[in-house]
């Protein structure tokens, strides 16, 4: 875990081989955890309240609509899309996967552009374009047309999670990032419930003959239009940087900048630094993040695309399966908000991620092992399985909190979301027509990948704790020598755009 070398950043040289840094355990920890020595508690609360009121609603609304847009295919499948486009189950699986091929293709370019272009404007442009693409789904008439729109939907949606991870690290303290990431990511759960009621209402009116066009076409036009409106809202109201925030006065912007300096994550540099890219590739934590994203999103990709079909396979009719997915959203929302809050409250983010994965594993086992006659028990298992999502949110928040250096952060983010896309790409292929209605091989796969996720989070936790203790020991030793290197690193981390390995005053969130 240690990285001992001399590195030059911003014209200054930081000697990482020196053990004579001087902040000490108390000073180093204060560097990481304190709000700011220059910001009073009352000022911090006031600024945080303004940030929450102006930044979080936009992020929540966009993340809600992106999940609705992504999963609209699953609702449409129950509303007649498969029949009207003559789709087999294998073709439907490919439609689910092609979205993540587009997502995969878009990841590296979008992370590269996020570092160089105005963050909010670039994100808004992508949102507007994917809204138009989604609306175009309504005019498709065959498998080829659907493949094209799903690919471009994934391509343009690929920006939103990396963008929001950067926004979170830009505006919030480390101790606030886990709960805030949980809040905007939990909109997936709200979208799950809202989408279920929306699709149910459209499907019911469609069956009654109240529409002149199929209900699934209305669904895509409606969601596409809402997405474009939200993209315009992001364009006009989301600031590109803290210093350009119009909802803050000049003095408040200065306070907001001072407030986040203690993060020491240095995400403001527009200069691409190849040594930081190499460091990201050599960092074992990067690969543990990626392995997690690859494995556990096999489960996510399958459940996201096939949840209505899975519920129908439990023994419920097509229309009821749309409505019965709604409680799953409520369970997921409660699980995400509570576990991410507790993770920040007790400073044990990874522990509560493991708790979420364990609940999800229990849910998958209930679906898999209970007799098919126990419909309610297997349905409850489906609801519980969704809580496994908490583990992914924990990793996403750790990339915000624990990866420092602008080029290292964007590289790690790109690799993470590439792995995410590959996992989601594989997931839909685990559902095979010959395995219906039990889908035993798919459920066995889900059990394995969630169990792997638990081990992965535990290993990340172990490595972070060990590295923090090593740095604490160096700080204690240097405190006795009266040296000042570690304190200077902590003070200059933001200006020098130091990585988490270069800055020995940095402490990893666990």
From TrEMBL:
Residues 55-468 form the Major facilitator superfamily (MFS) profile domain. GO terms for molecular function: transmembrane transporter activity. Keywords: Membrane, Transmembrane, Transmembrane helix, Transport. Residues 1-29 are annotated as: Disordered. The keyword Cytoplasm does not apply. InterPro entries: MFS, MFS_dom, MFS_trans_sf. Its main location: membrane. The chain crosses the membrane at residues 51-68, 88-106, 118-140, 152-173, 185-203, 215-238, 287-311, 323-343, 350-370, 382-400, 412-431, 443-463. It is found in: Membrane. Residues 1-10 have a biased composition (Polar residues). One of its GO terms (cellular component) is membrane. It is a multi-pass membrane protein. Signal peptide: none annotated. Belongs to the major facilitator superfamily. Allantoate permease family. This is Major facilitator superfamily (MFS) profile domain-containing protein. It comes from Rhodotorula graminis (strain WP1).
């Amino acid at each position: 875990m240690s990285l001992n070398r001399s590195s030059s950043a911003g014209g200054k040289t930081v000697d990482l081989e020196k053990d004579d840094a001087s902040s000490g355990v108390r000073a180093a920890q204060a560097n990481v955890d304190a709000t700011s020595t220059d910001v009073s508690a009352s000022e911090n609360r006031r600024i945080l309240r303004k940030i929450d009121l102006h930044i979080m609603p936009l992020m929540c609304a966009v993340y809600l609509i992106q999940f609705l847009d992504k999963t609209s295919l699953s609702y449409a499948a129950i509303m007649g899309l498969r029949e009207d486009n003559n789709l087999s189950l294998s073709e439907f699986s490919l439609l689910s996967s092609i979205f993540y091929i587009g997502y995969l293709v878009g990841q590296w370019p979008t992370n590269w552009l996020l570092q160089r272009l105005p963050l909010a404007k670039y994100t808004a442009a992508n949102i507007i374009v994917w809204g138009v693409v989604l609306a175009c789904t309504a005019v498709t008439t065959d498998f080829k047309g659907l493949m094209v729109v799903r690919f471009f939907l994934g391509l343009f949606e690929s920006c939103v999670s990396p963008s929001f991870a950067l926004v979170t690290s830009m505006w919030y303290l480390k101790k606030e990032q886990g709960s805030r990431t949980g809040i905007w990511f939990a909109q997936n759960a709200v979208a799950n419930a809202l989408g279920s009621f929306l699709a149910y209402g459209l499907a019911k009116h469609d069956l009654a003959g109240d529409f002149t066009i199929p209900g699934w076409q209305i669904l895509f036009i409606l969601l596409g239009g809402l997405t474009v409106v939200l993209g315009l809202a992001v364009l006009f109201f989301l600031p590109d940087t803290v210093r350009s925030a119009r909802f803050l006065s000049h003095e408040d912007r200065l306070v907001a900048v001072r407030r986040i300096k203690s993060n020491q994550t240095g995400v403001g540099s527009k200069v691409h630094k190849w040594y930081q890219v190499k460091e990201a590739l050599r960092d074992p934590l990067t690969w543990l993040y990626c392995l997690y994203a690859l494995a556990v999103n096999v489960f996510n990709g399958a459940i996201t695309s096939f949840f209505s079909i899975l519920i129908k396979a439990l023994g419920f009719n097509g229309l009821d399966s749309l409505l019965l997915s709604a409680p799953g959203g409520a369970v997921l929302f409660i699980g995400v908000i509570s576990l991410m809050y507790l993770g920040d409250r007790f400073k044990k983010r990874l522990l509560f991620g493991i708790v979420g994965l364990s609940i999800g594993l229990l849910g998958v086992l209930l679906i898999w092992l209970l007799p098919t006659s126990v419909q309610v028990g297997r349905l409850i298992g489906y609801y519980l399985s969704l809580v496994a999502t908490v583990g992914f949110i924990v990793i996403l928040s750790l990339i915000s909190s624990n990866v420092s250096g602008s080029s290292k952060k964007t590289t790690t983010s790109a690799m993470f979301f590439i792995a995410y896309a590959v996992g989601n790409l594989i997931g839909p292929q685990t559902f095979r027509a010959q395995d219906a209605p039990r889908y035993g091989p798919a459920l066995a796969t889900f059990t394995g990948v969630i169990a792997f996720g638990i081990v992965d989070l535990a290993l990340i936790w172990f490595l972070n704790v060990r590295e923090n203790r090593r740095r604490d020991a160096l700080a204690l030793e240097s405190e006795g020598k009266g040296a000042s290197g570690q304190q200077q690193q902590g003070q200059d981390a933001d200006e020098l755009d130091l990585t988490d390995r270069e800055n020995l005053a940095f402490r990893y969130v666990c």
